[in-house]
């Protein structure tokens, strides 16, 4: 047992200062115009869900503007083709709670959206969120409950947009190497990596 484990809210709160005025006032219950601008400029977000199988956190991306702002309390997220595990979608069928974190390349502030979601195959939404003439398999419509921006400290500490950070990728395994490194996968790294870039480009939509 860890004798230093924090076991109560009182213990936890004693470690931190009281939130500043800005940290409280930045949270709203709808998509105000300044927050809408961040979503419309974002080509990438991370989606968090929860279901009977546990937690899931996965990336989503497309050209900036791919998230359809329906009104100040609703946004639509196209669900493109992927690995067909549909972990996030399975979770949303069981538990509609959803969390989103939007990033804009070069900007250190991020935007957080929390709410409840439903999955739809509404033909109008499928058509509105089509890419290169191909509609998504379905659309996630998020009913917004809270929106606020996250300050820049995390991305600044990470140096996420620093050009020198790109060299970090050179230290990491390829997709094939990661698959081959999973016990009993039976996948050869070189075979999987051969032509991977072309396969992914061909099957984006």
UniProtKB/TrEMBL annotation:
It comes from the Bacteria. Signal peptide: none annotated. Gene3D superfamilies: Electron Transport, Fmn-binding Protein, Chain A. Residues 34-151 form the Pyridoxamine 5'-phosphate oxidase N-terminal domain. This is Pyridoxamine 5'-phosphate oxidase family protein. The lineage of its organism: Bacteria, Pseudomonadati, Pseudomonadota, Gammaproteobacteria, Chromatiales.
């Amino acid at each position: 047992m860890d004798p230093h484990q924090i076991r109560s809210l009182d213990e936890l709160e004693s470690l931190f200062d009281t939130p500043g005025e800005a940290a409280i006032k930045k949270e709203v219950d709808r998509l105000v115009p300044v927050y809408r601008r961040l979503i419309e400029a974002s080509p990438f977000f991370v989606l968090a869900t929860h279901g009977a199988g546990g937690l899931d956190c996965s990336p989503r991306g497309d050209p900036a503007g791919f998230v359809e702002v329906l009104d100040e309390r609703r946004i639509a997220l196209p669900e493109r083709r992927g690995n067909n595990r549909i972990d996030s979608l399975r979770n949303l069928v069981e538990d509609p709670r959803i969390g989103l974190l939007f990033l804009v390349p070069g900007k250190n502030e991020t935007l957080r959206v929390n709410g409840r979601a439903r999955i739809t195959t509404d033909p109008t939404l499928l058509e509105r969120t089509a890419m290169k003439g191909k509609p998504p398999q379905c659309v996630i419509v998020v009913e917004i409950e809270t929106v606020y921006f996250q300050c820049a400290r995390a991305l600044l500490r990470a140096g996420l947009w620093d050009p020198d950070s790109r060299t970090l990728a050179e230290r990491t395994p390829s997709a094939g190497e990661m698959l081959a490194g999973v016990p009993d996968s039976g996948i050869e790294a070189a075979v999987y990596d051969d032509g991977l870039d072309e396969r992914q480009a061909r099957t984006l939509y």
